[in-house]
Structures are given as structure tokens and as C-alpha cells.
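Study this fold:
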Amino acid sequence: MLRFLSLAIVPFACIAAANMPPEADQKLARDIFKEVIEIKSGFTTGATTPVVEAIAKRLRAAGFSSADMFLGGAIPTKANLVVRYRGTGKRKPLLLLAHTDVVEAKREDWSVDPFTFLEKDGYYYGRGSSDDKAQVTAWVENLIRYRREGFQPDRDLIVALTADEEGGGPYNGVDWLIKNHRDLIDAEFALNEGGRGSMVNGKRLSNDMQAAEKWYLDVRLEVRNKGGHSSLPVPDNAIYRLAGALVRLSQFAFPLKVTDVTRAYFAGMAKIDTTGAKADLQAASTGDPEAMKRIAAASPAWNSMLRTTCVATMLEGGHATNALPQLAAANVNCRVQPDDSLDYVLGELKKTVADDQVKISISNKEENSPASALRPDLMRAMAKISDSMWPGVIVLPTMSTGATDGRSLRATGIPTYGVQGFFYERDDVRAHGRDERIGVRSFYEGQEFLYELVKTLSAGQ
């Protein structure tokens, strides 16, 4: 008996198999997904308000009261939606977060139209399909499903669909809600993006849970002097001084170390490693210096998880081809471990640059936030559901080397965990890139995983 209908034969059919939502919920999820993908909500050129207005309309049609929904934001085009599914109030609410803005996408860069929802060869294509409109869709459709089924949680479930995660800035929805409507999103803890399922050649290996993330810092290195005529060169050249500082930076590395989260990650990776690094991964999880050196050298991702990194990303300098430069400057982008302070990072950079004529200043800084404690209830629920749906798949706590809105929530006292259940090939994650996509099966399995996880975390003890 076939476990699922061929997508090649019936491209719009619901997938009838284990680990999937009911067919009606698959269809509704697909309809919502298509609608939100095709609304252009690019961070700089689009708007999030049409996305949340469309979702609010669907929720009202499903019986949600306008009194339990809030629409608003920093400016009219950057609205957020917060909807509350009422529980018994026995426990503090659970916040379910996803962002509705997407990274910009140009048609000429893609092989398909990034803002036309497309099902092709077992994948759903479209900008935001993996970051973050799949999770937007899952939270919304599952909320409708809970209501239809009469589920009564022992805590309120709060879904917050927010603006401007991709670039932050003054219209960031989470920051705005924290500042203006903290009561709407106050919760015991939150589930967000940041974790994903990892596959290698189609084999599901781990269901990753983000419990920490690095914080973001841009530092400007700047050299100024009087310049002069290029026919009269002098040793004190702004470009040369900056170049020397950058060479010294390129030869510097912050110390390697593990945290509670990365310790658990590397210990888990040792159980499923297919690269021959099993022994080093296990040793690295204990903080072994030589093992950490070897795995840092083997993988840029592992290296970044083990240390703070600072790298030159932009240059500027000079004002004429026939003049000595009066200015030379570089942007250095740092992704900082949660337990490394700003003073520490700036101090290390100053020692590395080792030149008083190279001025070091902060050009952009996001607030640091502590790692979220590895909650036993969440870890147990994720492990049980993952093993039930995908036998042998383990749950790996991770620290993101990039950034999410979880940073702001953690900083304000709401522990946040990146949890999705959508699986991607480890070496083919296309978020922010060309031809972004998510597997059709992965989309529905992730929807079902999140449905079961939220029920487990809110169905009473």
C-alpha cells in the first residue's frame, strides 16, 4: 500500500501518511502558506501589515474574538498581530513567536519568481518559505485546529506574528511590543525560530533546539591624518596603518570555550557524527583544548560556536586618486558569545590592533541576552515526540551563531527556545538565499510536530 500520494501525479493532493496533520488541516495550512508567501513583506521594500491583516481575517472567520486579537506597530506599514487562545490560567502563558518580514529577493537572482508560491519536485518555493513563514503558518493553522477540536489548555497560548526581525531597527515588532505592550506577550517561556531539523542525504539526524545565540556588534576602525599630495608620499599613510591593523586582526582569534548549551550540543553531535570526528566532538564537550582546536579547524560553524568572532566586512578610504588618504576605515562585524562582555571584546580588539592612531568605536550594537536554561519539560517533550515521529532522531540544544528576536525576549526575562521541527539538508539551507524552499513533507511534519509539542506543554501536569 502506498504511504503517500505521488506529488508528481496529484500535485495539490494532501499527503496521506503518518506524522501528518489531518487532510483538512494540510489543505488549510497550504492555503495560508500560499497567501502569506505571495504578500511582499520584504524588510526594506515591503510591509508586514497586509500579512497580519490577512491572518486576522482568517482567525475571525474561525471564531476568534476581536477582543483576543491585537493589531498594531511602530508605523502603519509595520503592524504586528498578537492573538490569545484562552486556557484555564493554571500556568503562565506560552508565547509562540514568528516574524512576518522576509529578506529582500530579486526576480533576476532566482530561477523562479520569489513571490509566487510554487510546488515543484517535492518542495514549496518562495521567499520566506523557510524563514519564517512556515512557522507563521504552523502557529496559525494549529491554533485554528485547537479551537475546532475544543482543546482547553491549562495556560493561555499567545501567538505573536511580528515585523522587522530581519534587520531589526526602529520598527522591530518584538522590541516595540516589549516597550509598549509587554502585558500582551508576557509568558513563562517562548517558542521561536532558530532551531531546525538536520538531515544528511535524506536521513533525519537531529531536531535542534536553540537555547542561546550570539549577540551582534559592529565596530569601526578609523585612521585619520592630514593627507597631502600623492607625489610626496610619507610613511604615515592612513591606508597602511589601517591595513596593518586588519592584518593583525586576521591573525587573532578569541579563546575557545564551551558553555552549558554548546557542551550539550557537542556531546549530542558525538552520538550522530558521520564525519569521523566523534572522539573529538565528545572530548570538546568536556572543554578539552586540543579537541576544540581540531573541530574548530574542521568546521566554520563549529569554530563560531566555540568562540567570539570578529571579521572585517567593509572598507572605505581616500578621497582622490592623486592625494594621500585623509581617512581609512573598516567595519568589523563581531558575533559575541553570550558570556563575553562588551568591555572584554573592545579590550581584546584594542590590544590586537596595537596602534593608538587607529580609533575604535561602536557603530551598531544589539543587547546581549543570557542563554535560556535547558528546561526538562521541554527537552522531554521534544525528545518523546521526535522519537515517535522519527525514530532515532535526537534533540540537540544549540547556540545560534546568527541572531533572532529571541535575544530581545531573553533580555527582558522571557526564556526563549528555537524550535521548529522542519527538516533541511545540512548543506542546503537556503534561508536568505536564492530559490528558498522547504520540503513539502517537511512542512507538514513540522506543522504536526509543533501541534503535538504545544499540546504537550499546555495540557496539564
Confidence is low (pLDDT under 50) at residues 1-12.
